[in-house]
Each structure stands twice: as C-alpha cells, then as structure tokens.
Amino acid sequence: NVRVVVRVLDENDNAPTFPTPIMSIEFPENTPRDVKRTLNPARDADLGRYNTQRYSIVSGNVNNAFRLSSHRERDGVLYLDLQINGFLDRETTPAYSLVVEALDGGSPPLRGQMTVNITIQDVNDNQPIFNQSRYFATVPENATLGTTVLQVYATDQDAGENGQVEYAINRRQSDKEQMFRIDPATGLISVNKPLDFETRELHELVVVAKDRGMQPLETTAFVSIRVTDVNDNQPIINVIFLSDDATPKISESAQPGEFVARISDVYHANVMEVADPGTSVIQVTAVDRDEGNNSAIVYSLLDTPDTHSHWFQIDSHSGLITTRAHIDCETDPVPQLIVMAQDNGRPPLSSTGTVLVTIHD
C-alpha cells in the first residue's frame, strides 16, 4: 500500500466581507478626541496573508473627523474601531456617511466595503443670539393696554429643546413697574400699564432670551421705548403779580377786608379809575406739561359784555392784561374777566381762570 498526502494550497479567491452593508452609530458633538466605537469587522475565508489585512476610509470623512484602528485576536479576525480624530460640531456637520473598505493581502488585493452612517447628537453648546443687540421703538402715551410696541427675535443653532428660545424681561435690572410685558414664545412686547409722557418719556428694558436645555444658556438685548406726547394736558393758569418783586403786597393804610392774596381759580387785581388805556393790570401764565405744539399756549379774554370785559385786553403770547379803554368805578366797581389759555394741539385743550379787577376811585 502507498499512502498519498495531498496538500491543498490556499489561493486568494475570497474577498473580505462585512456582516452588513450598512451600519449606524452616534456620537455626541462634545465627544473628546480618541474616543472609539467598535465597528463590525470584515471576515475573509482565506488564510494567512490572504486574510483581511487592513482597513481604510474611502470617502465621506469630512475634515478628517475620524480615523480607523484595528487589532487581530486569536480567532484570526482583524477587529475594527472608529475613533474621533478631530472636533465634532453638529451645527457645522450634523451627519457623516463613511465608506469603509477592507483589503486582504493578495496581489492585487481583494476588497469589501461597508457604509457607516454617523449621526452627531446635539449638545447645548450655543446660546441664543438676538438679530439686534439694541432695539428702538416709539409708542404714543395714549396707547391702550395690550398695544404691540415691537418684536425681538433670537435664534439658537442647537436642536430640539436646546434650540427653543423663550423671552423674558429682566425685572431686576429694568421695568420694575411692569409697564410692559413680553410674550415668552413670540418676543412681542406690548403695553401692560397706562403710559404717561409727562411722567416718563424713555423706558429702557433688558430682554433675556434663554433656551430650554437642561443647563439653559441665555443672552440679553436692550430695548429703548420712547413714549411720544399726546395732547392730554390742558393749560393750568397761574398769576404773576405786578409788584416790583412779583409778590402780593398791601399798604399799611389798607382797610379791613381789603384783598391781600388768594390761591384759587379766581384771581384779584387792582387798578385806578383814572388809569389810561394800556395800563397794566395783571399778568397770567399757564403751564402745559405736553411738548411742542401741544404745549404752545395762546391767551384770550372771553367776551362777557355784562361784566364789561371790553374795558380790557390781553396779550395772546405773554398773558399780560391791560386796560383797553377808560374804566368807570360807578358803572362797575369790580369787573369780572374770564381768561382762557388754549394750546395748539389737535384737538386743542383749554383751561379758564377768573380775574376780578377792583377799580379804585
């Protein structure tokens, strides 16, 4: 008998094969460099140098964000890991699709491929950003409650709740009186309480935009709201006495009951019967808290013939009342004048005061 031993020599007739053509993995965007994920290795039925020898990334590796590492274990399989090679940023590149190739040691080598889809998970690493650092708006002082003043707008590049923005007014730093409110979802700022130009013309708000992350990030913007004047104040008449120091005076020869001074809507003045036309009697002044034409005041005397108002005239700009004609104590010893102060608003507002002129014989 002859024993024949036949040795079968291996030929490179099998290519490396991955168990699945597509594999999906995830990395948080703040994953440190060199962190690895295990990938499915390729297997090759051939032996020795015809087995899987190396791996490479063929395409999809934007900015060389990843690299491969491998090691062979006792079972002869060349195991594969994917490692972070740079810095991940979901806002710049939210996903990668790598084509990984396995090569054996043949000449030429045989190849097998697998696609690795990588999703970069969001981390709350971006604060909201306003489209303006400072906003300006105007609102009339008679604006009704709920009137919209302006809208602020901020964006956040993060995803999900990390990118959802809520708005608020920083009450510790601004608008403690809560004259305005802001819609937390839309950023619309509206009137919350009655406004008054004469009390406060400018309101400065500090508006906060905050995301809804587990550790929320925020940013601020400044809003300047100027209240514009509306003709809502009528003139208030005062009196300037025509003494040398503009104060009421009385002679030591004054009789009991003679007028000294009074704070009222009724004012008193004295004039001699022999006074010539054009003699100064008294000057009235009115103050209007509005501005511009709304506070420009014109004076006039109302026509009251029964009280002999035609004996007098008033300067429309200064409010100085003078005699227009000769006056007669016997006809009317105390003529009564009605002074009207009217502003130039639209519509105009006015106020009146009464001046009692005592004529001395």
TrEMBL record:
GO terms for molecular function: calcium ion binding. GO terms for biological process: homophilic cell adhesion via plasma membrane adhesion molecules. It is a single-pass type I membrane protein. GO terms for cellular component: plasma membrane. Pfam families: Cadherin. It comes from the Eukaryota. Keywords: Calcium, Cell membrane, Glycoprotein, Membrane, Repeat, Signal, Transmembrane, Transmembrane helix. It is found in: Cell membrane. Its main location: membrane. Residues 19-130, 131-237, 263-361 form the Cadherin domain. SMART domains: CA. This is AGAP007909-PA. It comes from Anopheles gambiae (African malaria mosquito).
